């Protein structure tokens, strides 16, 4: 489901005020869950890539960037994910033979870079990665999951949206209050262009209490594809499809139609047939994101172009220093 627009209004208006008691209850339940139980103490560093709010913020691109960084340092890094959108509970390693319906689209995408595990029980997933030889674990999401002790926690936020109206679900987009979440975080990575970054820093910077704040931006990989003037039907089922459409326009593509779907929405045969028929009628090429492409049937992927993007950080210094303190540098 698409989040209501008032989640991202400065104060949320009357809907946020009416739902505020439920938001306080939701935040209280999150705090209670975090205080419960004894977390698994891994024998290797556990680096959590999480967020404070619901929706797409750039967690997967940061996980890929960190994985590539650690691989360049000869660190045997593994990813552990819940496998959102997949039907298998795990713990199990994601293999090329798996489908997104089985393990989820994000783990399938991440598995192309480093060994990736899915596990509804995060602690069991981390134990499986350790047993398989991981010398560091990237915990994809899980910042509000208390079952594993994190050695380093990175919070990702969309700079344009920030933390919305500052209220918890359903009154706003937050899983927990900003100050409460930031108290457990080691670094904040905001993702967006320069103007959005400035607005984010102006509003939310005072809450960071000196924690490293790193700016980042998603940039398309140079693939040699001649996008300029290409008639396209662009579709996306990610947290913010409009960001993908904007990226495609920036590349010079002529977007004649767009289709937005829910995050992780299955791309079934009837839906794909409609997309293909619409594209043929418009004389357009189907284009989607890497994450959406992971949900396409293998036989259909050759008929759809993808736009791979990677996260570029303005300054790796704070993260490099934190990783070095863990003995990974």
TrEMBL record:
It holds the Pfam family LpxK. Pathway: Glycolipid biosynthesis; lipid IV(A) biosynthesis; lipid IV(A) from (3R)-3-hydroxytetradecanoyl-[acyl-carrier-protein] and UDP-N-acetyl-alpha-D-glucosamine: step 6/6. It catalyses: a lipid A disaccharide + ATP = a lipid IVA + ADP + H(+). Keywords: ATP-binding, Kinase, Lipid A biosynthesis, Lipid biosynthesis, Lipid metabolism, Nucleotide-binding, Transferase. ATP binds at residues 53-60. It is an enzyme of class 2 (transferase). GO terms for molecular function: ATP binding; lipid-A 4'-kinase activity. Its EC number is 2.7.1.130. Coiled coil: none annotated. One of its GO terms (cellular component) is plasma membrane. GO terms for biological process: lipid A biosynthetic process; lipopolysaccharide core region biosynthetic process. PANTHER family: TETRAACYLDISACCHARIDE 4'-KINASE, TETRAACYLDISACCHARIDE 4'-KINASE, MITOCHONDRIAL-RELATED. Transfers the gamma-phosphate of ATP to the 4'-position of a tetraacyldisaccharide 1-phosphate intermediate (termed DS-1-P) to form tetraacyldisaccharide 1,4'-bis-phosphate (lipid IVA). Belongs to the LpxK family. This is Tetraacyldisaccharide 4'-kinase.
